[in-house]
Amino acid sequence: MTPSPYFKDKICIVTGANSGIGYALSAELLRRGAIVYMAGRNKAKVEEAVNSLGEYKGRARPVVVDVTSQAQVTKAIEDTKAQAGRIDFLFNNAGVGGTIQYDKVTLDDWKTIIDTNLWSVIYGVHATIPIMVSQGSGHIVNTSSIAGIIPLPFQALYSTTKFGVTAMTESLRYEYMDKGLHFSTICPANIATPIFNKSIDGKAQGELRIPEDAYPVDKAAAYILDKVAEHRGIIVVPEEPNTEAYKLYWSGDRKAEQLLLAMARDRRAAFEKGGSYF
C-alpha cells in the first residue's frame, strides 16, 4: 500500500531522534518526503544520525537541544520556525524508561523521570501550539507508552509520567480540533530499541537485553505514521495483543487483574534474584 502523502514537504521536529523510535520515525518521515529536524542533546550523536541518512541530504537537519530545559526547547522550536517558516509536526519522543522497585526509588529519581518524560513534552507543546494556531494547522504527536494506558507493576514512576502524557494529549486533541490542530499519542509496548538497557537517568547499563517479543522498530515507525496520517488519537503499537489488553483492563475484567498480579510476582522474583525481568 502506498503511504499517505500527509507528510510530503512538511516541516517536522523529532526529539530523541538519534536512536530508537525517534530515529526510526525520522527515517520513515524522510522516506515519505518530509523535512525533518532531528533533535537530541548530544551533538556528535545527532550529527551521526543525520549523516547516516545521507540519501536524504538537505532534508535531515540536526538540532542540539536538552529537552529538560524549557529555554532550550523554546529556542529550538522558535529557531526552526524562523528557518523553515512553519512547523507542521512536532514529535515529542525523547524519554527514558524506568522499571524499578519502589523501595529503591529516590526523590531525585522522580525529578529526573518527570523532567525527561513529562516536562519535556509540556515545554514542546507550550512553545508549539501558538505557532500552529497562527498557521491554522499542525499536528503534535507525543510518545507515551503502553504503561501510559495500563499501570504496569514496578513502573510507578514511568507510568505516572506516561499517563500524564496520554491525558494531556487526549485533552488537547478535543480542545483544538475545531482550530485545525491534531494531536496523537503513541503508546508503544515492547519495541526493539536500546531503551531496555538504560537506567532511569538514560545512561546505558550492562549488556543490551531486548525482550523476545519486541516488535521491529522500523515496522513500528511505519505503522505509527500511517495512523498519524489518519488522525488517530491513541496509537497502540503493536496493535495486538496490546489493544485487547488495554480494553480488558479498562473494562474491569478480573483477567486483567490476574495478569498484572502475575507480572508483579514475576518481576519481583527477578529483582530478588538480582537479574533482569525480561
Q: What structural class should be given to the helix and strand makeup?
A: alpha/beta
| Whole-number count of domains | 1
Number of strands: 7
| Tertiary shape | globular
Provide mean pLDDT, rounded.
91
What is the spatial order of strands in the main beta sheet? 3-2-1-4-5-6-7
Strand content: 5-15%
**DSSP summary: helix tally:** 8
- CATH level-1 class: Alpha Beta
CATH homologous superfamily classification: NAD(P)-binding Rossmann-like Domain
Poorly predicted regions: 204-208
For this structure, the CATH topology is Rossmann fold
Give, in order, the helices and strands: EHEHEHEHEHEHEHH
User: Largest sheet at a glance?
Assistant: 7 strands, parallel
Helicity, in percent?
A: 40-55%
Question: How does CATH name the architecture?
Answer: 3-Layer(aba) Sandwich
Q: End-to-end distance, in Å? A: 35 Å
Q: C-alpha Rg, in Å?
A: 18 Å
